[in-house]
Each structure stands twice: as C-alpha cells, then as structure tokens.
Design a protein that fits this description.
Blueprint lengths: L9 H4 L33 H12 L2 H13 L3 H29 L3 H8 L4 H31 L15 H7 L3 H10 L14 H18 L3 H27 L4 H9 L9 H15 L5 H7 L7 H34 L12 H10 L5 H31 L10 H16 L7 H12 L2 H31 L5 H28 L3 E6 L4 E6 L2 H15 L1 H8 L3 H29 L9 H15 L1
Antiparallel strand pairs: 1-2
Helix pairs in contact: 2-10, 2-13, 2-14, 2-16, 3-12, 3-14, 4-12, 4-13, 4-14, 4-19, 4-20, 5-6, 6-9, 6-16, 6-17, 6-18, 6-19, 6-21, 6-22, 8-15, 9-17, 10-14, 10-16, 11-14, 12-20, 13-16, 14-15, 16-17, 18-21, 19-20, 19-21, 23-24
Length: about 600
C-alpha cells in the first residue's frame, strides 16, 4: 500500500519496528530510553517517597496473613528453603526487570509492553486484570482488620472471653477464644462455600468505608500517596518488634519458632511446596501485577534500579520471615498450653488474625496494644492496595478510550465495580470466596505473566540491547547473572512451575478450609464443581489476554503463511472460515496494509486452486 511522503505507519508511531514475521526490532534508533513526552505525567516528590512507596507496596498484609499460613501448611522450615531459592532466581531478577522497564518507559504496564510491540500488549492486560481481581478480595482482608480495630475499643477485648448464656458455645470457646471469635463473630461464617447465607452488614458497611478511603487517597495521585507512606512503612516494624519481644517470653514460644526453621527434608521432594513458594514470591513482591511498573514510571529515568530492587526484595522477604517468627512464637505457646499439635492451633487465611488476636490478650494494656496492632495491619494493607490499583489506573491513562478521562473518574469506576463484586465476600460464606479468589487469581496467572515478561525483554527486544539502554539511563549495566536469569534460568523455572501447577490442579483438586461449628475446627474440603469453574474463569480471564493480543496484532506475514497453510493442509472450506474471520477482525487490525496483504494472499491461493 502506497503512503504519502512523511507519513508514518501505526507501528512506527508506537515506537517499534515490524520486520517480516519476527517481532524483534532491528532498528537501533528505536529506544526505550526515548519515551513519549507527556507533560502531564506525575512524578514522585523525591527518591525517599519512591522507595518508601515501593516498600509499602511490596510489604503488605500478605507478609503477615498469607506467608505464615503457607509456611504452616507446607512444613514450616521446609517451605523457607524453596522460598529463599525462588527469591534469588526469580524474585530479584523479575523485580529488577519490571522496575527498569517502568522507569525507562514512563508508562503503565499496558503502554510499556505495547511500546515494545503491540503483540505484547496482552502481557499488560493480563497484569491489569490480575491486579484488579486481587484488589477486590485484598480490600476485604483490610475490612477484617478494620473490624478488629473497631472491636478493640472496649474495656476488654471481645475475643479474650467466651460468650455468656450458651453452655455449648462456651465449651467450644474455652481453649480457643480467639479462633471462636474470628469465625463466629467477625465472619459469622457458614459451614461451606455452597451456603452463602446473608450479607454481614457490619462488614458490608466497613467495605463501603474502605473503598471510599481508597478513592479519597488515590484520586489525589502518587504525590499524596508518597506523603502517607512515611507513616505506613515505618510504623508496622515498631509494633512487630514489641510483639516479638513479648512472644519470646511466652511458654512454648521456642517450640513454634523451632517448627518454622526446622525443615522436613522429605517434603522438599513435594513439587507443590516449590509451586506454593514460587507463587508466594510473586504475590509478596507484587510481581506480574503491573503495580511496580506503574510506580517506577513516575520515577526519574536515571534512578539506580538495581540497588533499589535488591534493597526492597530483601526488606520484603525479611519482613515475611520476621512476621512469621512473631506468629509462630504465639502458635507455639497455644500448642503447648492447650496440648494440641501446632498445625491444629489455627490454619488457613485466618491464621494471622487468630494468632495475633491471642497474642494481644497477653499484652498489658491489651486494648491499647490491640488498637496499635490493627492500625499497623491497616497500614500494611493500604500501602499494598495503593500499588495494586495503581497498575490499573496507570494503564487506563494509556488506553485511547479512557486516556482523557479525569483521574477521579478512573478511580471512581474501579472502586464502584470492586465494591459491587466484593459484596459476595462479606456474606456468611464470603471468606470462602476470598479463599477461592486467592487460590486461583493470585497464583497461576502470575507465573505465566512473569514467563512472558522475560520472553519479551530477553528474546524479542533483546537482552543485550535492554542492558545497553539501562546502562545509558542509569549508568549501571546489568551483570551477566541478571541477563542469564532473564534469558534462561527464570523463564525455564516459571515454565516448569506453570505446567506443574496445571497438572497439580488436575490431579489434586483444590480445597478450602471449611469451619465446623460442632468442633470449632476447620476441615479441608474440596471446592464444588461450580466453584472450580469460577476459579478457571478467573485464570482464563487473565491469561487468555496474552494469545488474544498476539492474534489481533499479528504481523501481515503471519497471516499470509497461515492462509497458505490452511489452504494446502485443510482444504478450501477451512480457508473460507479463516477469511470470514479476517473480514470480521478487519477493523481491529493494527498494522498498516493488513487488508491488502490478506487480499493478495487470497487471490494467489484462488489462482493456484
């Protein structure tokens, strides 16, 4: 197709070069260090705000809520070994890659991957959808923390005593007051996911308040968030230190800490332990969500991303282990004093609330420490929530349809939809829905996104070229280890884990922790078929974006080869079907001259036949 002199194609305008059937750019004039100018692009107030915001994003409720119960379910010290290995071989390399990409591009995750090549836009879309879904149930966990905070303003902590007037409930509660309060009072839980029950109106009102809080802060932009994180980042460590010192003085605390650091070597042969450790690294560091890319896009292009990446990842993992030590010291005390195995003291997503709730009753004055602790938990949760949703909001500014909308409209739209979906999680069976979302949306998609990120940078854009441009911007070139991880080690490990995870889900049906009122215990129960279907939809909703955008933005040469293949191998009928699909998808073509190439290919095939 002829074009006028001086006219540019869509692909050139987007900053990438299309060269036949390959995605790799061969034009060295196209550079990630020359981002599109955006006079309205927000920036951090200073370097400290950026660092604190990234730490606050990476260190969240997941460090005190998700990490301890995964460690408990996967052998304690056994879980730490693959966790630390995965930190080095996939956590740090991917964190470094995402931070560098966002900083060089100065765009959200969709805009960043689209700029490398439109076929890669699906990586960004997958990350945004995952962030959006995780943000929905993550805010429900923040709601639980709010409930405990409000319940603390009493003369005596309500979970420190058993209910009066009900002898059967009192008998069940006697040796597990914190657990009884969590399930029967805070959640008012049903006994299965198939029994949603009624909406818990206390949690529903708190959910509304939580989303209004998110809207109020995020509508102001990253500079407002940067001021808040000074408090939300530092304050939690003070409270954790106090609880840790108190925990060490409890009878049986050493039993719990020993369990955390003593590996069961036979469990290392269990591939599921490695799968869970790998996905926890993604979840804890915020990899694959797009939030880190969004945060880094507001930074100055010459910031030293390597130093920041190593610092933040070490702080994050150190916080996870330190928080687990606090929880396991309390679990050890409960195990010894009640004469039950440590893994039966508490389990599942409520482990942190049960263990910390019990520990707070042992501090004096308990009410004051409870208020300070749950305020700390909220600080952790809100900081991560901002980063998770920033991935969605930053990408909305890169989409032509919503690019000109005010930020308040973006934030409001996300908050309203999230609140409506979140109503299903504040019913009596809502905590089971949270567990369903966490198991499916917060694990498998992240592995595929991470794999595709490494593939895109190392093999499509070029790992050496990416390294040169990173050195040009930051004055520090990535050493051989990082390049080796991006190109070989990390993607191979993630591919193995992804395939293994699919096999595990097929041969080992997923389960959730169902509460039993008769015994005041939780029982591992298989999800019903309809719940597994919803889980599969949550996964596919994200991961299918990657092949979908490859198909929609495929180069013309691919179409010609596919058309020839269909004609020679499958006959005219399938070729007609393909041409019908082309006619319907014509309006979605992103490459200049698509229609002409398809038409020419069809005429050549017709003449041959």
């Amino acid at each position: 197709m002829e074009r006028a002199e001086g006219e540019t194609t869509t692909s050139e305008a987007n900053g990438h070069v299309q060269n036949g059937s390959t995605l790799e750019s061969s034009d060295d004039s196209v550079s990630l260090t020359k981002p599109d100018a955006d006079p309205n692009k927000q920036t951090w107030g200073n370097k400290t705000e950026f660092l604190f915001s990234c730490v606050s994003y990476a260190v969240g409720i997941g460090n005190l809520w998700r990490f301890p119960y995964l460690a408990q379910d996967n052998g304690g010290g056994t879980f730490l070994i693959p966790y630390l290995i995965m930190l080095v071989v996939e956590g740090m390399p991917l964190f470094y890659l995402e931070m560098s990409l966002g900083q060089l591009m100065r765009k959200g995750t969709i805009g960043s991957w689209t700029k490398i090549h439109p076929c890669l836009a699906g990586i960004g879309w997958a990350a945004v959808i995952t962030s959006f879904v995780v943000g929905i149930y993550y805010n429900v966990i923040i709601v639980w923390a709010f409930f405990y905070l409000f319940s603390s303003f009493q003369s005596q902590l309500p979970w420190s005593k058993c209910p009066l007037g009900n002898s059967s409930s009192a008998a069940l509660c006697r040796n597990a007051t914190s657990k009884f309060f969590y399930y029967t009072n805070a959640l008012d839980i049903s006994e299965s996911i198939g029994d949603p029950g009624h909406i818990n109106w206390k949690l529903c009102l708190i959910l509304l308040m939580a989303w209004l809080l998110v809207f109020a802060v995020m509508a102001k932009g990253v500079k407002a968030q940067g001021k808040i994180v000074y408090f939300t980042t530092l304050y939690p460590y003070v409270i954790l230190l106090v609880l840790f010192i108190r925990g060490l003085t409890l009878e049986g605390s050493g039993h719990g800490i020993k369990y955390l650091f003593t590996p069961d070597w036979t469990r290392l042969y269990d591939p599921d332990v490695w799968r869970v450790a790998a996905t926890q690294i993604f979840y804890s560091l915020g990899l694959g969500f797009g939030g880190l890319v969004a945060y880094a896009s507001y930074n100055k292009p010459d910031n030293d991303t390597l130093k920041d990446s190593v610092f933040i990842t070490l702080v994050n993992s150190g916080t996870s282990i330190f928080g687990a030590m606090v929880i396991f010291s309390i679990l050890g005390h409960l195990s010894v004093t009640n004469g039950v195995p440590l893994n039966e003291v508490g389990s599942g997503p409520g482990l942190a609330f049960i263990a910390f709730g019990e520990g707070l009753t042992l501090l004096v004055p308990s009410v004051m420490w409870s208020v300070l602790f749950f305020l700390m938990l909220l600080c952790l949760g809100v900081g991560s929530m901002f980063g998770t949703l920033e991935a969605v909001l930053a990408s909305l500014t890169d989409i032509p349809l919503t690019k000109k909308w005010r930020r308040e409209v973006h934030v409001g739209l996300v908050c309203v939809i999230s609140f409506l979906v979140g109503l299903s999680m504040v019913t009596q069976g809502g905590s089971y829905v949270v567990e369903l979302f966490d198991q499916f949306a917060g694990s498998l998609p992240l592995l595929l996104i991470g794999f595709c990120e490494c593939l895109a940078v190392a093999w499509i854009y070029g790992v050496n070229r990416f390294g040169r441009e990173l050195k040009q911007a930051t004055k520090r070139a990535p050493v051989l280890y990082w390049k080796f991880c991006w190109k070989w080690l990390s993607p191979i490990i993630m591919a193995i884990l992804f395939v293994g995870s699919i096999g595990y889900e097929i041969y080992q049906p997923p389960v959730y922790q169902a509460y039993n009122y008769t015994s005041n215990q939780t029982v591992k129960t298989q999800f019903p078929a309809w719940a597994e279907f919803i889980g599969a939809v949550l996964i596919l909703l994200s991961v299918t974006q990657i092949p979908l955008f490859v198909y929609l933005n495929r180069p013309p040469e691919w179409k010609k080869r596919l058309s020839t293949f269909l004609s020679s191998c499958c006959g005219p009928s399938l070729l007609d079907t393909y041409n019908d699909m082309e006619a319907q998808a014509g309006d979605n073509a992103s490459f200049d001259g698509d229609e002409e190439v398809v038409g020419t290919a069809y005429r050549e095939l017709r003449d041959v036949q």
